[in-house]
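User: Hi! I'm a student and our assignment asks us to look at how structure tokens line up with a sequence. Could you show me two examples?

Assistant: Happy to help. In each example below, the sequence comes first and the structure tokens follow. Example one:
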Amino acid sequence: MRTQLLFLFIFFNSFLSYNQINLNKIDYVKLDNQFKLASIDNLGKLYFLEGNKLIKVNTFSNFSSNPFSKENYFFSDLSIGNISKVDCYNTYKLKLWYSDYSILVILDNYLNEIKRINFNLISSGFNISEISSANENNVWVFDESLMRLKKFNFFKKIYIDNIETKIDGKLIDMKSNYNYLWVLTEKYFYKINYNGLIIYKSKNKHKFSRLGFYKNDILLSNNSELFQFKNNEELFVKINLEKLFIKDFFVINETLYIYDEDYLNKYLILTY
């Protein structure tokens, strides 16, 4: 009996430690305070903001030596203020959100404008404060006045009628990988399917402020800690990390970038 219990204990602990993330720091670079890192796409291209100007950079070395090189791409529109969010999950339909004017701009991979939606002209009685990519030609939008999520087709300029999801607490972050929308509020952490159904909900007890995707799992951070949410096990596991202020982070394949306002820190993700 003791032997069986010991075997089960060892097996259970081995199971929990499987796919545990470890980080190996491989590089870091100083960022110019003139530019704010907004995002990194799945091809490793970097997106910087300078005021209301978006700059797409093929390699960081090109940017650091000459930010306004002809090898980089640019987009700017002075008439609608500063960019609040850069969503580059689909690099061929890049989404810029201008929260001050409730305007969504869709760009191609060369930062040419494809489409523009002014939600003030569409959403009578709605207060759209945040967006995220969704499947096909849709985006998730958050109506702050009613604390609900809706799905919007940006080519047809219509809401998907049967999709509406109520959430609780002030919205902090939301990101979609098309299959699921992951939402962080001050109170809760949500997993929502493409039909708007909540299929997982837990308290935001670690005060997470950012989330990102790593394979089938989710990474979440507060200002100083990083966690792995093991999707299949519905388990939060803290990742060992040097003492660091985490303003934002990005995961590209097996590489983790942590932005601390002054430096972009680059780590190799190792799993055991």
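Example two works the same way, sequence first and then tokens:
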Amino acid sequence: MASGAEITSQEYIGHHLTNAKMCMVDGGVAFNKSCADAGFWTLHIDTLGWSLFLGMVFLLIFRSVAKKAETGVPGKLQCAVEMIVEFVDDSVKSTFHGKNPVIAPLSLTIFVWVLLMNAMDWVPVDLIPTVAGLVGINYIKSVPTTDINMTLALALGVFWLILYYSVKVKGIGGFIKELSTQPFGHWTLYPLNFVLEIVTLLARPLSLALRLFGNLYAGELIFILIATMGVWQIFGPHFMWAAFHLLVIPLQAFIFMTLTIVYLSLAHEDH
């Protein structure tokens, strides 16, 4: 957004909720407003960039701590990492009832990655767009989980794992049998069971994606609305909402991780 330009509150909010886009138009690369008619193959490059960057931060921090881990008195960073690992490990042990060495590291990755992406909501809403504007970037969103494309991508990844382990553990026949024989046990109701179970199965990734997106998008929108108050925001509203997000941000990461563990545990249960 051009510096010094007079804008309305509606334009200000719309600007902060617009992703940086990249697409192919007429054989060339186009950005932002030029991608309005590009359709499905429009990349939100800010979402991709921030999510990859935060994923690398997670890997580098945990790898560094693992390489420098001490058996004596650990440092603060090592203590924090160990607390997170033990917390996730306890969650997996109490929720997952199968045997799969992939579930614990997968749960750790999901929890920390989603937590870091959510935590970008604490960055002042004008800071990153202002810095980006200085180098000619007109649109940028810094919270990847406020983009429905990101949360759907995470949820679809979990969904494919559910399908994979359901077929691997139960076989295709066993999986279809499980979908057909419950909740009603009579054979005449098997078609109804199958429809109901398919709807339930498809609802899982949808609920995962929409829950995370809705909570973070609403939180970011309220931060933006508070920012329209100008200097008055520093006299309470901003800090009160940021303090409330101390609960919301880790809670949403925990819920996403826990539901992932639950769904994968169900996929490993052979009825």
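Here is something you could point out in your write-up. The chain has a mean pLDDT of 85.
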